[in-house]
Amino acid sequence: MNGSTPPKSQGDIVTETPVVFIHGLWLHSASWQPWLTLFQDLGYQVSAPGWPGEADTVEAARATPDDVAGHGIDDVVEHYAAIIADLPAPPILIGHSFGGMVAQKLLGQDRARAAIAIDAAQIKGVLPLPLSALRSTTPVFKNPANRNKAVSLTESEFRYAFGNAIPEQESDELFERWTVPAPGKPLFEAAAANFNPHSAAKVDTANASRGPLLLITGGKDHTVPEAVTRATLKQYRHSEAVTDLLEFPDRGHSLVVDHGWREVADACVSWLQNQEL
Asked: 174, 153 in Cβ contact below 8 A?
């Protein structure tokens, strides 16, 4: 996979397949808007529902952090499963960070036609835990009480976790535009996944009948380093279903919202076309 095949122009894709975008921690669902416009123009039916309790706007979400506090991975998966159940057809899922983990879980449950997991959070069975990932999650883990609280990042914390591969000014602008408080519980669940046989971070990676999956990694990502995504790929070695990996060597965790988002989105469209989706 190199993502070099240009996407089809508007009007070339005719599909009734829904595409559901799933964001991760600290970014509001509205941050997907450029992707929604692109995929809608290509003929897909698009939506980007927020997490359980998430307000409709960034401003409202910042004002009501308690509404998302305490929600864990299973809550989020069930929330999106209910949304999927109301769609006219199984969707393509595109998830970023913890949204990528959720997309993988739903694909493994045969609730989706295909999934793209971008810098996806660590699933059960993945062992590498690079120091940069630990530092990125320090704002949550520094206080055990954060498990049941909503946690906000500071501008500098966002810059390290998301914006390390882009200019500081752009990182600060993205922080101001899109960041919202996020529940701490999913991070605590993921951290303990390999010690819990019934972990919410467990994905059915052996499902051979599921739809195709694309894993995307940013080579400079501090929050989900490349080693984590490559270890995730190995978890799928017992499945005969399509599982591809695409790397953007110079990109960090902000790759879905920063100035280079279109390159990533075009690569997703190209992969979907190769899968005839």
From this structure: no
Residue in 73, 70, 65, 58 with CA at minimum distance from that of residue 27: 58
Could you give the 3-state DSSP secondary structure of residue 46? strand
For tokens 């739903």, the residue is 106
> Cα(32)–Cα(144) distance, rounded to whole angstroms?
31
pLDDT in tens, 9-55: 444 554 579 999 999 999 999 999 999 999 999 999 999 999 999 99
Coil, strand or helix: which one is 31?
A: helix
Give the angle 124-128-132 at the CA atoms, nearest 5°.
115
Mind listing the pLDDT tens digit for each residue in 202-254? Answer: 999 999 999 999 999 999 999 999 999 999 999 999 999 999 999 999 999 99
Q: How far is 85 from 105, CA to CA, in rounded Å?
A: 15
Q: What is the 3-state secondary structure (H, E, C) of 164-212?
A: CCCCHHHHHHHHHHHECCEECHHHHHHHCHHHCCCCCCCCCCCCCCCCC
End-to-end Cα separation, the chain, in angstroms? 17
- CA atoms of 215 and 192, how far apart (whole Å): 23
Q: Where are the beta strands (DSSP E) in the chain?
A: 18-22, 45-47, 92-96, 114-118, 150-151, 182-183, 213-218, 243-248
Instruction: Decide: 184 and 147 in contact? Cβ < 8 Å.
Output: yes
Q: What global pTM score does this model have? A: 0.92
Q: In this structure, what token pair is assigned to residue 275?
A: 């899968």
- Is 54 exposed, middle or buried (CB count within 10 Å of its CB: 0-12, 13-18, 19+)? buried
